Amino acid sequence: MKIRRPPLQGQSLLETALALPLLLILLGGGYWFYRNLSLSSSAESAAHAQMLRAGRRCAGIEPRLSATIHPAENVVRIGARNDPLIGQVPLFRGLAGRTVASTDVSLRNESVGAFLDLPSHAIRREAEGAVDCWEKGAPSGATVRRTVQGILLTGGLQ
Cα–Cα distance between 29 and 22 in angstroms, integer? Predict the structure, then answer.
């Protein structure tokens, strides 16, 4: 003899109604986390590329670098500066020393659906290195060349 149970009515619908919002929140959080990780990695790469280009006195490609991170305008700012070696090496005061480049990414809230807004992204990455260009036409190369020639001429006169 089999015992018959009454059919469950509405249990699966209730489980779906309880689990679906949690699943959507997890998916939205995963998307935001991946987006933040991707923007951070792209900003780091752009800062390194800008540091190398600025240190070697190459032409700037900031618009192209910012477009690779995010295509919208006024979202990514890339800049670099060369800090001199003043006071660190007496004979070579005109050397550029180290190059510091920075990338700033700022995205506003993104709306997902009608009720959910993902948080904004604000990322700043910096790269610093001694990437001085000592070629003949660069200021640092001319300083090194003049200093070495002066030392050699002074040694030759003695």
Answer: 11
